Amino acid sequence: MAPRANWKGFLRLSLVTCPVALYPATSESEKISFNQLNRQIGHRIMYLKVDADTGDEVPNEDIVKGYQLEKDQFIEVSKEELEKIALESTRTIEIDEFVDKADIDPRYLIRPYYIRPDGKVGHDAFAVIRETIREMNKVAIGRVVLTNREHIIGLEPLNKGLVGTLLRYPYEVRSEQECFDDIQDVKVTKDMLDLASTS
């Protein structure tokens, strides 16, 4: 049985639109997780929310969100203010462009989803969109709002459905130069390569 859909809406390519649902393509259910325990008596350890200065526990009703301007200076942001600036979800994945798969740097890939028609209608339109992407032999790029945040999504045909992969924005990917600048230039000889490739 398929997992529960994470998102339902519409997929649009030019004049063709169909209802679709996004399902997680990966699972964390087999992942082993551990709890922290009190070694003396075996009870689970709880985490308390405490004031950073006083060390006193703070009840949930007294906790608010704040944006840090500079060290030790915050602006409180209310739930109502956050709701006012939240992105309106159009509930539509609008395909904006097509790119070669080789042009998508693997560092931009976040999370895959399976996309299928939602309900009994829309299978014909879905097939038209899927086969158009397949014929172009490219990745369709669109935008989707998930959890009040807009994401870029790359769409590719996969069997009878589509796989949609959330992508990072360029500003979210650090330059490799931060890590690689101080790597020494070494002349690698053929002998060294032969030695490394022998099994």
**Helical coverage, percent range:** 10-25%
- How large is the share of residues in beta strands? 25-35%
Largest sheet: 7 strands, mixed, barrel
Mean pLDDT: 89
What does the overall shape look like?
Answer: extended
Poorly predicted segments: none
Task: Count helical runs.
Answer: 4
Which architecture name of the domain at 7-25 and 89-172 does CATH use? Answer: Beta Barrel
User: Taking strands numbered 1, 2, ... along the chain, how are they ordered across the largest sheet?
Assistant: 1-2-6-9-8-7-5
Q: Could you give the order of the helices and strands?
A: EEEEHEEHEEEHH
Number of strands: 9
Note the gap between the termini: 44 Å
Structure classification: alpha+beta
In the CATH scheme, the class of the domain at 7-25 and 89-172 would be: Mainly Beta
Nearest-angstrom radius of gyration?
A: 24 Å
CATH-defined topology of the domain at 7-25 and 89-172: Ku70, Chain: A, Domain 2
Protein name: Non-homologous end joining protein Ku
GO molecular function: double-stranded DNA binding
Keywords: DNA-binding
Domain Ku: 55-183
